[in-house]
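Predict structure. Chain length: 275.
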Amino acid sequence: GIGMGLRSPIAAPLFDGSAPPALRWLEIHPENYLARGGRYASLLTQARERYPLLTHGLTMGFGALAPFDAAYLRTLRGLLHELRVPWHSDHLCFSQVDEVYLHDLLPLPLHEEAIGVAVQRIQEAQDALGVSIAIEPISWYARPPDSPLDEAEFIAEILRRADAKLLLDVNNVYVNAMNHGFDARAFVDKLPLERVVQLHMAGHHVRPDGQRIDSHAAPISEPVYELFDYTMRKLARPLPVLLERDDEFPPFAELAAELERLASIYERALGERAA
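Prediction complete.
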């Protein structure tokens, strides 16, 4: 069913009964809760009492050349097992160089060496965390040089070699397709959809020059709803779908309406499959 990210500005309506019946679960960023007390611990406790939870990381970056910090993995493993999540997701990207975090999700070059690095990092994480890993391909704004491979085939090969799962962000696919001139539906068709375990839905901003920026700070656009409908019909099975909003929060009633619309598209796709 449909879920939302647990964010402080919208926590109150999530817990006071204001959320619509369409809201079935919540997603958290573990980095916000590891070894932290106070309001963070209180929010997590309230969330666990009311909803199933999934976890989505922000800092691992499965294209990183350096191995992950062992102490961090031990702490993360403890939280994941405490929450009993079925998998943990993070991004197919890199975000640090020489132990300097860049606070951005940067694209990998599409070549064989990058595939090998990503597979190594995913397997390292799966072994250390004791849960399956789902990778999220990112939105990107410049293609790194020396990228001879097709992006969908690049993703599929990493998933195959690492035996990993796929978190498919529908907005990312649309933003990339519009910015770089490819067919979003054809891209979805080329992915190994049997590995998809979760979808993300979000809004984006359009700059005056037409470039689209994946902001998570705007309503979902009509073309992204349409691509979601197409993707759900291709998948034709129940799975968690996240409404992802991280900034510029509107009145909660507007988010509730987005949740209900996503639920309607979701249920219609599953109903047609059943019929």
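Summary: The chain has a mean pLDDT of 95.
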